[in-house]
Each structure stands twice: as structure tokens, then as C-alpha cells.
């Protein structure tokens, strides 16, 4: 009977050992694939994760402020990283249907099964880490937004950080290292009639634009593009194709341009309609504390995508395409502003310094601190509209857009096409008194060309 008791003891020991190993495995699985433990709260995965983190980005933009170029760069870094992270997730568990931006990582899942909330974690942990590098002074805000989504602190261990997120973040950062975005060389104006000069006047004080050295982002046209071959790839020649400031100022075309903005863009204009005034402020978003032109267009993108029920994978590609197009539009646009033969002065300078009306004021009150030609808003709007039109395979899509400019008399405006919104965005700069008509048209043409180039060369859908 002894051998029976011994056999029973061995069986009991084996069962106990199996239970113990199962407990260890379960503990390890939880540590490797679940959100950091112990959880402070249950995850809240309501709404699309790509849209959630773009809303977080817009919050950071409102606080950070600054010129459009660096902000568009931040959007492109976060959204291309999200897209490559989502592409990696699709490669691991589903099917990739479009090219990644840099690279999709064929990562190990550890246990051969998809972890709880894995798509959310891949996207969110990637977005958080990129934003933390871009906005290090907003750590508390970003930590709170992470915890709002996941119910845990972002410092907890997650295997996905080791297998995929860390690699995506590093790839994105390495790709933008030494891209020229940290060039702080100051600008020296051309110092002749027609050339840009600071736009601070005693009756229009602007401490941020009282010296030529304060011109914003003068070397942004030299930043490494995201999709273009160079910032000058689609560069137009000069305003009206005039070869010099002297020829430009002596031309009837220039006189006509100044006359139009003088009439339509004046603070007390009697020719600008009530709706044009509303549109001018709706699209402005120039002041710090707003989500600036790139942020406004990302917000509209989210509204359109939500209306059409896009999946996270579809959203990741759409937001990456829009962000890359806007980032390259900023580079191409600032190449035009500073690296062409004519760095055109703003309308307020043309009208006052040209002796037409020393008391003329633009509707905006202040003017962006960089040359007029061509319009950045126009380029951003056209780049956005071009991507949206090609992504949705139609321009005739109805949607409602929003603004957070504090001067806007309305919070929303509705449109029946992407190009309608983009053209109004471009024209609004004339009604605001900060741009000439050719700034709007040339900026629009530039942004539209960039959108087509981006859509046909980056993150292409399978079979395209």
C-alpha cells in the first residue's frame, strides 16, 4: 500500500505545482499584456483613440502657442508615429491595407494572443511618449490625459513599450533629428520699400513684432520635408512674377492688390459684408491660446471622420496624411516667404509706409510677424482640403467646422465641400486685412500641389 500512498502524494504534488505555475503564468501574463497594475480606475476607451490623442495635441497647442511651422511639425510627428504603431498592430493581428510612413514593426505579442485593449495601448502609449518629448513642460497635463484614458499612470510597465512602442517612438525621433527645425538664426529685413518690416505702430502696438530680428521662423523653409523632395519643390517665382521690389511697386497689379485689401480688410470697412467679417475671425486662430491653423484643421478632420464612422486604422492614416501635408505646406510656404527675391511687406505697411493712409488699421489689429506672400492659412487649408478630397474620393462632402478664436461671433460654420471651406479660409485673410489677394491664391495653389504629392507618394493604399 506504500506505493499507492507515494503515488498519491506525487500526484498531489504535481497538481499543486501545476496550480502554482498557472498562477505564476497568469501573474506574468497580466504584467506583460495588461495595463500597469494596480489600476487606479477602469480604462475609458470611449470614442476613437486617434481622435482622442489629436484632441490632447490641440490642448497642448493651445498652451504652447508659437508659430505654425513648429506646431505642424508636432502634429506630423505624433500622427505618423500613431499611424506606424497602428500599422504594426494591423501587421501583427489583422491585415495592413496601406503602406506605413516609416516602418511597421512585426512585434512579438509574448503569449500568442491579442492582449486586452492592445490597439488602444499601442496608439495611446506611442502618442503619449511623442507628445512628452515635444511638450516637456506640459507633463502634468499629458499624464492626466493618459490616466483619463487608461485609468493608470503612464510610468507603469507594459510589454508593448518594449516590443513595439519604444521602437516606433525612436524611429520617429531619429527621423526628425537634425531636420533643421532648431535653426535659430535671426532674420535681417531687406530694408527697402516693399520689403517686409516689423508691424508694430504706436497706435497698433505689438511688442512681439517691433524688431526685424523677431520675424518668426525665417529658416523654416530649410527644414527637412516629410514627403517633398525639398521645400522649394513647388515654389512660385515672385508676387505677380515681378523681378524686383521696384518693378513690383510700380505695377498696376500691385496697386490693385493694395486697393482691394485696403477696402475689404480695414477695421472700419464699409465694403466687407457681415458674413465676410464673421469668416475673417472664424478662420483667424492666430493668437496664442487658440489651436492655431493646423489645430483647427485637425479638429475639422475629427468632425468629418466621426460623422463617417472611420475605424482607428482609417483615422490613423487620414490624420497622418493631413498632418504630413500641413507640415510640408509650412515648409514650402515659409520657403516662399523668406527664400524668394521678394519678402513682401504686409498690407498695413504698404498702406501706411506707401503714404496711402497713415491711420489705416486692419480688422485683425495686429499682424503675423513674417512676410505676407504667400498666405500660410491658404497653404494649410488647401493642403488639408486636397488630402480630404482624395481620401474620401469626393470634394462634395457636407460638414460643420468649429473655431476657438475668441473674436469669432460664431462658433461653427457649415460647408458643402472641402474646397469651399479652404477657399473661404484663404479669402478670410484678405477680409482680416493681413494679406493681399495673390497671397491667398498663390498659397492655395502651393498647398494643393503639396497635398497631391503627399497623397500619391506616402502611406498609399494597397493597389494604388
Automatic annotation (TrEMBL):
Pfam families: PAP2
Gene3D superfamilies: 1.10.606.20
Superkingdom, taxonomy of origin: Bacteria
Top-tier EC class: oxidoreductase
Signal sequence segment: 1-41
EC number(s) stated in the UniProt entry for this protein: 1.11.1.-
InterPro entries referenced in this protein's UniProt entry, alphabetically: PAP2/HPO, PAP2/HPO_sf, V-haloperoxidase
A GO molecular-function annotation: peroxidase activity
Bias-annotated ranges (Basic and acidic residues): 174-185
CDD domains to which the protein is assigned, alphabetical: PAP2_haloperoxidase (cd03398)
Annotated stretches, region: Disordered: 174-201
TM regions (residue ranges): none
Domain Phosphatidic acid phosphatase type 2/haloperoxidase residue range list: 343-456
The entry's keywords: Oxidoreductase, Peroxidase, Signal
PANTHER family reported in the protein's UniProt record: PEROXIDASE-RELATED (PTHR34599), PHOSPHATIDIC ACID PHOSPHATASE TYPE 2_HALOPEROXIDASE DOMAIN-CONTAINING PROTEIN (PTHR34599:SF1)
Protein name, entry field: Vanadium-dependent haloperoxidase
Organism this protein belongs to: Streptomyces noboritoensis
